[in-house]
Amino acid sequence: MRQSKMLVPTLKENPAEADIASHQLLVRAGYIRQLASGIYTLLPLGKRVLTKIETVIRQEMDRAGAQEMLLSALQPAELWQESGRWYTYGSELMRMKDRHDREFALGATHEEAMTSILRNEVGTYKKLPMTLYQIQNKFRDEKRPRFGLLRGREFLMKDAYSFNESFESLDQSYQNMYDAYCRIFERLGLNYRAVIADSGAMGGKETHEFMVLSEVGEDVIAYSDTSKYAANVEMAPVTNEYEKSAETTGEMEKVSTPDRKTMQEVADYLGHELERGLKSIMFKVDDEYVLVVTRGDHEVNDVKVKNFMDAKVVDLATEEDTVRLMGTGFGSLGPVGAPKEVKVVADYAVEPLVNVSCGANEEGYHYKNVTPGKDFVPDEYADMRFVEEGDPSPDGEGVIKFARGIEVGHVFKLGSFYAENMGATFLDNSGKSRTMVMGSYGIGVSRTLAAMVEQFHDDKGIVWPKQAAPYLVHILSLNPKKEEQRVLADNIYADLLDEGIEVLYDDRPERAGVKFADSDLIGIPLRIIVGKRAGEEIVEVKMRNEESKTEIARSSLMDEIK
Ligand code: ATP
Ligand code: MG
Ligand code: MG
Ligand code: MG
Predict the structure, then answer these.
(1) Which residues surround ligand 2, an ion (CB under 5 A)?
(2) Which residue has its alpha carbon closest to ligand 1 atom 7?
(3) Is the CB of 152 under 6 A from ligand 1?
(4) pLDDT tens per residue across span 113-169
(5) Which of 47, 410, 501, 539 could be bridged to 42 by S-S, CB 3.0 to 4.6 A?
């Protein structure tokens, strides 16, 4: 591509609204432009990188046996009403009406739409397990869209869903996707950790988030350098030792995110009441009251799910029920059944209000997902104290460290929540009707692009690794007015195109300084500089991530590049 004709609007200054490197650089280097808050246009360079990342994801999904589909973004409200999420998803879900006053939502995620396909089209165990995926824009009316592509209101996601005949089969599909995710993030060259996330999945099964380590990450993870242990500290359940934490409220404030301020009020109720064995609890969140009813044991396909729970919001002014929360664990990927802890993670109505869990385990403390100010280590000397950096990691190897991370992926054992609510059943090999068991697996594709820029940049611009770079080679002709420079650059450009090498050719009538600065900003891995020695067919070659340049004759250029 000739840069003189390409839409690459580079800027000298950082845009005022951008606070972090990836946002600044993607705007300055001409990859993206904002259309509205949290809504971005991918310009040609941005689109090329996005496609590269998609390709890696697609290859690994296909290799893992997942099948690509494309669902519609626009979804009828009825689907979301069947699952219950119409009432629980809150204002992050973009809702609208058509000309006949029928209600719709723009897909924030696609569990419902995918489940509706499976329940209609797959009725036998013979087709199971089946994993389906798509790469498509998602819509979430985020409360605080920010950091450019990192938290948008419309963003590109790869979302996959597995449909299984049993929990054992789900375990395998989950592991399969987990492994594919590791390969994807490794191939992209990212420094990441797979962390234990919300432990509230059905049947006590796990969910993991893939976190790119970065100072600008909104999550905090606890990990051990010398073992595989890593957990998202946000998702760690509050223990029923809550009374003990009450003394150090100050510390809790420090670690909780703004959205979690009301945690204390909730935990005040839950912590005490559940210990006393009460089955229903009302707690106050802002000016609303939430009633939580635990239903005790519950069976899905012969697997015991404990303390499945209903909750509803009661507006005390009118005494009317306004919202019904179904199930527990209202992550944005949806409700999942609760294990033996009773969890409340409400994400409903106007604001995401609380993100709280509460429970007891047999040992009397919780030390799985470590959260300072919230989780405890058994102190042999005294009774309990909060987890701190430097404590032994829960697996006994190494010590706990804290770091910030960007959530680029999330794998989730959903269990039968959607399949049950939406009637997705199949006939097993003895002809018995059973409910499907599901998993869901998301990757933020556009967020991953931004996360890569966070990890791959220097003070001059982006430094793309080959596998994601918009082009492999950047030709700079320093003075195209000089005939021999223009001709040589044109010829090299043609040679590269013949070889099928992706090349951007800066043929603009700009000063050399401008070209160098733009080239650094854009970050293409290999640069060919056509300058003074063009008459002798000699050019300079420089890697974006190295300082040194080497002179090379045109005749041996192709060997150098390959
Ligand atoms: P977050 O905690 O950052 O709000 P999430 O847990 O709500 O993310 P999921 O429902 O797990 O997100 O969606 C799967 C993936 O989609 C996430 O792991 C993330 O990479 C990406 N994603 C989610 N929300 C956004 C967003 N607003 N902008 C860009 N990517 C997003
Ligand atoms: Mg979210
Ligand atoms: Mg999250
Ligand atoms: Mg998530």
Answers:
(1) 332
(2) 332
(3) yes
(4) 999 999 999 999 999 999 999 999 999 999 899 999 999 999 999 999 999 999 999
(5) 47
CA distance 174 to 186: 18
Write out the DSSP string of 280-326.
Answer: EEEEEETTEEEEEEE---EEETTEEETT-EEEEEEETTTTEEEEEEE
479-519 confidence digits (pLDDT tens): 999 999 999 999 999 999 999 999 999 999 999 999 999 99
Please state, in angstroms and rounded to a whole number, the distance separating the CA atoms of residues 199 and 340: 10
Token representation of residue 396: 């006994």
What six digits make up the tokens of 215?
């100072």
Q: Is 432 helix (H, G, I), strand (E, B) or coil?
A: coil
212 lines ligand 1 (CB under 6 A): no
Cβ–ligand 1 distance for 474 under 6 Å, the answer no
Look up the pTM and report it: 0.79
ipTM beyond cut 0.90: yes
Alpha-carbon distances of 357 from 143, 238, 377, 425, 439, rounded to whole Å = 22, 6, 18, 31, 22
The protein residue whose alpha carbon is closest to atom 12 in ligand 1 is 332
Identify the DSSP state of 392. B
Q: What are phi and psi of 438, to 5 degrees?
A: -125, 155
